[in-house]
Amino acid sequence: MSPDQLADSEPTLSFNEKNIVEFRASHGHVASFGDAPLLLLTTTGAKSGKQRTNPMMYLADAGDPNRYFVFASYAGADQNPAWFHNIVAHPGDLEVEIGDERHHANAEILPEPRRSEVFSDQASRYPGFAEYQEKTSRTIPVIALTLQR
Asked: Residue 99 — left, alpha, or beta (φ > 0 → left; ψ -120 to 50 → alpha)?
């Protein structure tokens, strides 16, 4: 990462770190996200091998209480977020925190048409996701996280 890229990423890291602390202190709630369902996803770096934790909104799978969907929206950027590349590299080396619970998890990148169905459901609940898709030409990946209880 160049010095300019590192400087650009510092506000995001600070924002994420602040939200992670708040999430853990308040049993899974972050005020700036309102009532949106949040989880913390810890991945293993694709290149670095280091553990990275990111807060993100999720959609629970109505048919499976151990399955949650997350969205690699990156606020509509033209590239996928780093955590997505980490999942591709290490799909079975994940930790998910929901509320006060921590679980190991496995990831699956949803194929079409299921990806579109789940994304459409999330976008209808939270219109910001539809706006993210409009901002980019890439198809935003949807990832199913299956908890190992």
From this structure: left
Kindly report the pTM of this predicted structure: 0.89
Closest CA to 70 of 88, 61, 57, 79: 57
Kindly report, residue by residue over 85-119, the tens digit of the pLDDT. Answer: 999 999 999 999 999 999 999 999 999 999 999 99
Largest CA distance in the chain: 46
Phi and psi angles of residue 55, each rounded to the nearest 5 degrees, phi first: -80, 145
- Per DSSP, 31 falls in state G
List, in sequence order, every residue forming a beta bridge with 57; answer none if it has no partner.
38
Q: What structural domains does the chain harbor?
A: 3-29+37-148 (2.30.110.10)
State the CB neighbour count (10 A cutoff) for residue 134: 9
